[in-house]
Amino acid sequence: xxxxVRGFRPLLVPLALAAGVALAALVPMTQEDFRLSGTQMGDxxxxxxxxxxxxxxxxxxxxxxxxxxxxxxGSLMGLAGRDPLFxxxxxxxxQDVDNVGTFCLRCHVPLSYVSGSAADPSGNSLTDLDLExxxxxxxxxxxxxxxxxxSSPPEDEAVLDALDAVPAHAxxxxxxxxxxxxxxxxxxDAVPLHDAIYSPFFAQAALCGTCHDVGNVAVSRxxxxxxxxxxxxxxxxxxxxxxxxxxERTFTEWRLSAFAAGGVDLGGRFGGNRGAVVSNCQDCHMPxxxxxxxxxxxxxxxLAVHEFAxxxxxxxxxxxxALDGDPDPPVDSALVAAGRDRxxxxxxxAATLAPxxxxxxxxxxxxNQTGHKLPTGHIEGRRVxxxxxxxxxxxxxIAEHGHYDPVEAELDEGSTTVFEMKVxxxxxxxxxxxxxxxxxxxxxxxDTIELDNxxxxxxxxxxxxxAAGAPVVGAAYADGQYWHDSVFALPPGAxxxxxxxxxxxxxxxxxxxxxxxxxxxTRGDELHALWTASGRGAPIAMxxxxxxxxxxxxxxxxxxxxxxxxxxxxx
Length: 571
Known about the structure:
By secondary structure, this protein is α+β, with helices and mostly antiparallel strands. It has a domain at 351-567. The chain has helices spanning 15-18, 52-59, 68-73, 84-96, 100-108, 112-115, 136-139, 154-161, 205-212, 250-255, 281-285, 313-323, 333-349, 427-433, 462-467, 508-517, 523-533; strands at 183-185, 196-198, 214-221, 227-229, 244-248, 264-265, 277-278, 288-292, 299-304, 351-353, 356-358, 361-368, 383-391, 397-401, 404-405, 410-411, 418-425, 438-439, 448-452, 483-489, 496-504, 540-548, 564-567. Strands 13, 14, 17, 18, 19, 21 and 22 form a seven-stranded antiparallel beta sheet that branches. Strands 10, 11, 12, 20 and 23 form a five-stranded antiparallel beta sheet that branches. A three-stranded antiparallel beta sheet has the order 4-3-5, with no helix packed on it. A hairpin with a 5-residue loop joins strand 13 (383-391) and strand 14. The protein is globular and about 70 Å long.
């Protein structure tokens, strides 16, 4: 039985229908345009996937800080079906492209492919089980599409043979589920109270790549490197995400990094008990601890904690705001708050600041400590920016770059460096949609990369990143460079500088674009209300450093007409 998500996703009657007006999407597409290999609706029988509450009976209730159920329940993985930001994005995407919502639901609420409710691209038909997001039984029923004789579970072979098409790429939620619901896990010595088998797939980054490499399957790269919309009512011409317009390239960024090529010694920054060297996704996002994975199981020194911490703190703030005052909340707010703390901790370890003075300027070096671009993930709204405050000997503020006004929720972008990706519409796309060419918030329609100055990971090289649809645009990074230098002219009389690095994924302009662009339901207004109630997307401090400086004799050390200049060049 479907129902609204209490507090923040009521079942909505589209405004256009209430007014008796049918609004067509800007681009007409069919379910066929978004059909992909792997498990299809109807392949897994109803009842094969159990609710997370069943898993909690043994995998929760005994150690909230480390047990699988509690850590998952407070993560955005466990809340993917209750994320107000996603549902606002879903509405605007459906307004732009018919049936694209079915593609979006595939990642965020994958059990909708078991229930069949993904056939309704609006998300209004989701069941209680669907709303559990990327759930326990879903992940632990995943089958590695790349069958390896002698390594993969023998049971996987029959599952793969039964598919119409086996995915050849870890991307676009082209998942394969065991239709019997037989669970799999990373421990060969596990003896659970239910049927389960060992699968090495759970220690491989490709499992994460299933949903963390996303291309717009309706927009394909042309021989000249540009992107164009596909013909309609036809299957995607190539399921390789590198041939599709990039919406997220996190797994690809990792694949092309030094982390994937043997690992990087980060001195214990990530990984928990795993040691100094981290390599794959699980090493950082599922750090190990000395703990029990099951109430009845053994104590392990290598238990992968299911925290899935990333940069999701702002989205978890929205969820917490939605839960506030709910007399019967569907989620424990204490678990969500703990998940938010883990996300903030991850952000605080994702980069380091190394400022130094040179030739009348303050060079702010931002070093990317992650295994992918900084920032990474779903690119809409996400940004990292530098702030600098100069003080004189009397400790008076005399100059500032990257000022953020919390009252207006506005950043002075022009005075500092902002790391972000912006997408846009080509002239062809503008002609097809009637929208203006250039930078756009219509992500489902985008076919150009207008800017991508995000900081690459260790092992970066321009040619392979460009070939993979993850190029640098509007900046310059040398092969091997995983840091960025921003240069700020020293104002006269400066004695010290406070340097900060900040993360933001819900800036005002983005949330207002989702609110104002929503014309078919109230999800945009609901998002805006929760954004307002949860601090208006205030930036999260990632790093702070103070440095003494020698005040310059002139304000424009670079003769550029500005007291701020930036460069990615090596010192």
